[in-house]
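1st attempt posting a full record on here, be nice pls
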Amino acid sequence: MAVIGRLFVVAFGFLMACFVAGIIVVGAVLYPEISDFGGQIDQSAIDIVLGFGFIFISGFALLPALIVVLITEAFFIRSVLAYAVGGAIVGAACYLGLIPFDPDTMQFHGIVRRHMEIMTGAGIVAGLVYWLIAGRTAGAWREPTRPLRPPPPLPSQSPKA
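the predicted structure (as C-alpha coordinates):
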Protein backbone atom coordinates (compact mmCIF):
# COMPACT_ATOMS: atom_id res chain seq x y z
CA MET A 1 0.00 0.00 0.00
CA ALA A 2 2.86 2.39 0.79
CA VAL A 3 4.36 1.75 -2.65
CA ILE A 4 1.21 2.97 -4.41
CA GLY A 5 1.21 6.17 -2.39
CA ARG A 6 4.89 6.63 -3.11
CA LEU A 7 4.28 6.27 -6.86
CA PHE A 8 1.80 9.15 -6.71
CA VAL A 9 4.29 11.30 -4.79
CA VAL A 10 7.05 10.50 -7.31
CA ALA A 11 4.76 11.27 -10.28
CA PHE A 12 3.64 14.56 -8.74
CA GLY A 13 7.24 15.51 -7.94
CA PHE A 14 8.31 14.70 -11.49
CA LEU A 15 5.49 16.76 -13.01
CA MET A 16 6.25 19.77 -10.81
CA ALA A 17 9.97 19.49 -11.56
CA CYS A 18 9.22 19.37 -15.30
CA PHE A 19 6.92 22.36 -15.00
CA VAL A 20 9.61 24.44 -13.28
CA ALA A 21 12.27 23.29 -15.75
CA GLY A 22 9.97 24.16 -18.66
CA ILE A 23 9.44 27.66 -17.29
CA ILE A 24 13.19 28.14 -16.88
CA VAL A 25 14.01 26.88 -20.36
CA VAL A 26 11.32 28.91 -22.09
CA GLY A 27 12.15 32.04 -20.09
CA ALA A 28 15.89 31.74 -20.71
CA VAL A 29 15.52 31.01 -24.42
CA LEU A 30 12.97 33.78 -24.97
CA TYR A 31 14.75 36.38 -22.84
CA PRO A 32 16.77 37.96 -25.67
CA GLU A 33 13.68 38.17 -27.85
CA ILE A 34 11.54 39.61 -25.06
CA SER A 35 14.10 42.32 -24.37
CA ASP A 36 14.16 43.26 -28.08
CA PHE A 37 10.35 43.64 -28.15
CA GLY A 38 10.37 45.94 -25.16
CA GLY A 39 8.39 43.44 -23.11
CA GLN A 40 5.26 43.57 -25.31
CA ILE A 41 4.34 39.94 -26.00
CA ASP A 42 0.85 38.48 -26.22
CA GLN A 43 0.08 36.59 -22.99
CA SER A 44 -1.76 33.79 -24.78
CA ALA A 45 1.34 33.14 -26.90
CA ILE A 46 3.45 32.88 -23.74
CA ASP A 47 0.92 30.41 -22.29
CA ILE A 48 1.14 28.24 -25.41
CA VAL A 49 4.95 28.33 -25.43
CA LEU A 50 5.05 27.42 -21.71
CA GLY A 51 2.68 24.51 -22.35
CA PHE A 52 4.83 23.18 -25.17
CA GLY A 53 7.96 23.71 -23.04
CA PHE A 54 6.44 21.60 -20.25
CA ILE A 55 5.47 18.83 -22.69
CA PHE A 56 8.90 18.94 -24.32
CA ILE A 57 10.81 18.76 -21.03
CA SER A 58 8.63 16.07 -19.50
CA GLY A 59 8.77 13.89 -22.62
CA PHE A 60 12.52 14.00 -23.04
CA ALA A 61 13.37 13.87 -19.34
CA LEU A 62 11.16 10.92 -18.42
CA LEU A 63 13.60 8.06 -18.99
CA PRO A 64 16.77 9.69 -17.58
CA ALA A 65 14.84 11.05 -14.59
CA LEU A 66 13.27 7.66 -13.99
CA ILE A 67 16.74 6.14 -13.77
CA VAL A 68 17.79 8.74 -11.18
CA VAL A 69 14.56 8.16 -9.20
CA LEU A 70 15.03 4.39 -9.21
CA ILE A 71 18.62 4.69 -7.99
CA THR A 72 17.74 7.12 -5.21
CA GLU A 73 14.73 5.10 -4.09
CA ALA A 74 16.63 1.82 -4.09
CA PHE A 75 19.59 3.12 -2.10
CA PHE A 76 17.71 5.52 0.26
CA ILE A 77 19.60 8.51 -1.16
CA ARG A 78 18.07 11.65 0.34
CA SER A 79 20.86 14.19 -0.17
CA VAL A 80 19.93 17.44 -1.86
CA LEU A 81 23.29 17.40 -3.64
CA ALA A 82 22.54 14.02 -5.20
CA TYR A 83 19.30 15.35 -6.69
CA ALA A 84 20.98 18.53 -7.94
CA VAL A 85 23.73 16.51 -9.65
CA GLY A 86 21.19 14.01 -11.00
CA GLY A 87 19.12 16.90 -12.37
CA ALA A 88 22.19 18.38 -14.05
CA ILE A 89 22.96 15.05 -15.68
CA VAL A 90 19.35 14.65 -16.83
CA GLY A 91 19.29 18.19 -18.23
CA ALA A 92 22.55 17.66 -20.10
CA ALA A 93 21.34 14.28 -21.39
CA CYS A 94 18.12 15.84 -22.67
CA TYR A 95 20.05 18.49 -24.57
CA LEU A 96 22.66 16.10 -25.95
CA GLY A 97 19.90 13.75 -27.07
CA LEU A 98 18.82 16.39 -29.57
CA ILE A 99 22.30 17.13 -30.95
CA PRO A 100 23.69 15.09 -33.88
CA PHE A 101 26.43 12.70 -32.82
CA ASP A 102 29.14 11.49 -35.18
CA PRO A 103 30.26 7.99 -34.11
CA ASP A 104 33.34 8.09 -36.36
CA THR A 105 34.88 11.04 -34.55
CA MET A 106 33.01 10.42 -31.27
CA GLN A 107 31.88 14.06 -31.13
CA PHE A 108 28.67 16.01 -30.94
CA HIS A 109 28.23 18.55 -33.76
CA GLY A 110 26.35 21.78 -33.25
CA ILE A 111 26.48 22.21 -29.48
CA VAL A 112 25.45 25.72 -28.48
CA ARG A 113 27.07 26.44 -25.16
CA ARG A 114 24.32 28.76 -23.94
CA HIS A 115 21.63 26.16 -24.62
CA MET A 116 23.66 23.49 -22.84
CA GLU A 117 24.00 25.78 -19.81
CA ILE A 118 20.28 26.54 -19.82
CA MET A 119 19.30 22.87 -19.93
CA THR A 120 21.81 21.91 -17.26
CA GLY A 121 20.69 24.75 -14.99
CA ALA A 122 17.04 23.87 -15.53
CA GLY A 123 17.89 20.27 -14.63
CA ILE A 124 19.54 21.37 -11.41
CA VAL A 125 16.52 23.43 -10.39
CA ALA A 126 14.19 20.59 -11.39
CA GLY A 127 16.23 18.20 -9.23
CA LEU A 128 15.89 20.57 -6.28
CA VAL A 129 12.13 20.87 -6.80
CA TYR A 130 11.84 17.08 -6.98
CA TRP A 131 13.88 16.78 -3.78
CA LEU A 132 11.54 19.21 -2.01
CA ILE A 133 8.47 17.21 -3.00
CA ALA A 134 9.59 13.58 -3.07
CA GLY A 135 13.33 13.22 -2.59
CA ARG A 136 13.52 14.02 1.11
CA THR A 137 11.64 10.82 1.88
CA ALA A 138 13.22 8.55 -0.74
CA GLY A 139 12.97 4.91 0.22
CA ALA A 140 10.59 5.59 3.11
CA TRP A 141 8.12 3.07 1.73
CA ARG A 142 10.58 0.28 2.57
CA GLU A 143 10.80 1.09 6.26
CA PRO A 144 8.62 -1.13 8.45
CA THR A 145 5.74 0.48 10.26
CA ARG A 146 6.31 1.22 13.90
CA PRO A 147 4.50 -1.12 16.31
CA LEU A 148 1.84 0.42 18.47
CA ARG A 149 2.86 1.20 22.01
CA PRO A 150 1.02 -0.77 24.68
CA PRO A 151 -1.46 1.26 26.71
CA PRO A 152 -0.24 2.58 30.06
CA PRO A 153 -0.98 0.43 33.10
CA LEU A 154 -4.19 0.98 35.03
CA PRO A 155 -4.02 2.78 38.35
CA SER A 156 -3.83 0.47 41.36
CA GLN A 157 -7.29 1.43 42.78
CA SER A 158 -9.19 0.91 39.53
CA PRO A 159 -11.85 -1.84 39.41
CA LYS A 160 -10.85 -4.93 37.49
CA ALA A 161 -13.06 -5.92 34.64
